[in-house]
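Issue: copy button drops trailing tokens. Both records pasted manually instead:
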Amino acid sequence: MSGSASIDDLLTFEEERPRLDERTGRSRLGGVLRLLAGVASVVVVVIVGLRAVGMQVSLLILIAGVLALFLVRRVVAALAPGPPPPPPPRRPVTRVDDGTWNWTAQDALRRAINGWEWPLEWSNSRPERFTGMILPRLGELADERLRLRHGVTRESDPARARDLLGERLWVFLEAAPRRTPSPRDIAAIVAELEKI
């Protein structure tokens, strides 16, 4: 191995197959000899075991049976599927020269951002979209924070939830706004949610 190896070279593993020497067939002959040695050792052990319990079996039948088992084992091993292929490499998110980001590699964070970004953008033109999509999500977030931190929700204990949320956040979540809040208003609401 040379002095410099990439991380891919170090982490990849390929099983080396025994090379067959065409002139002598040593690899194939060695495999046959190992098979016969294994069969012979199993036959000897079985004969000793059978004699110890007082049974006798024909040597030819015993050898044929053990040889058949070894051959079946080899065939099954040869037909077994190999390891699954490695997953395709992930393409990283990279910054493009014009200052935007290449989001071709979708990740969980980007999907979560899109889960908020798209509905917020849709709600700019129609306030009922904000009321129908964003406000329930914000309410769920508030309830979850209240439940995790204080053991209550807006439904289970409205008076305590109102105290914990504060008047501004409570009114925002309970009464649907007539217009879509500005990004500054939403940032203030999110900051109040984070304080819970």
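Record 2 (pasted manually too):
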Amino acid sequence: MLELAAVCLLAVTQAMSGEAIAEKIANRIADDERTGQITFTLRDSKGRERERTARLAVRETDEVSRMLLLFDRPANIRDTAFLSFDYVAPEAADETWLFLPSTERVRRIPSTDRSGRFMATELTYGDVKDDFKFGLADYDFEAGGEKNGRLVLIGTSKSPQVARETGYGGFRAEIDPETWFPMLIDFADPEGEPLKTIEVNEVQRVGDSWTAKSFEVVNHKTGRSTSVRVDDSRVARGLSATLFDARDLDRAGSQLP
């Protein structure tokens, strides 16, 4: 019965336009506060590894998703904090900040820097902020049919400027129609050449929100990769409002459990 239900769901969703699929992804249910622990395993082109760990706090509403990452290890980046406000309305300007203990200053990251590498991983600032959603104002979308029981979504950057800002000329993604979660994303660089692949190994439901529990990012140009694992994810209602205030990022370590 479950297989039949999945087939029926796929048959219905295959008739959707690319724009409608992208909107479903952007509007995934997101109404919980949650926390967790994230481990980033960085590998260079020779397979040498190093780890970074961080605490995570998320507060999502129908209007905006707020995400805080606070790094604990290694010692030289302890208390580094990343905060993003990702607005659902495509006309709203998203906001991102970074606190570096070495400078004791909070730096606002402009949208033109979305393509910058996030904490030496193969993720960009934009990847982290978007949290497996695609900017509706950044891409033209096209439905690409079905593969392995998933919907195929193709995105093309709306302009060369957007491609420079995001670092991506476009993407091809495989979407689970039950969760509206991208399970595989192949990104192209601004010139249209293969750049990197993000593959989700496991998703989990925390409250009403679907999130990635583990995923892999492979850079095809450099040979570097980053594995990401999220542990101890839980609903955590009543998080302090100052956790998500850029002016208090220097004190986030004492407020986040």
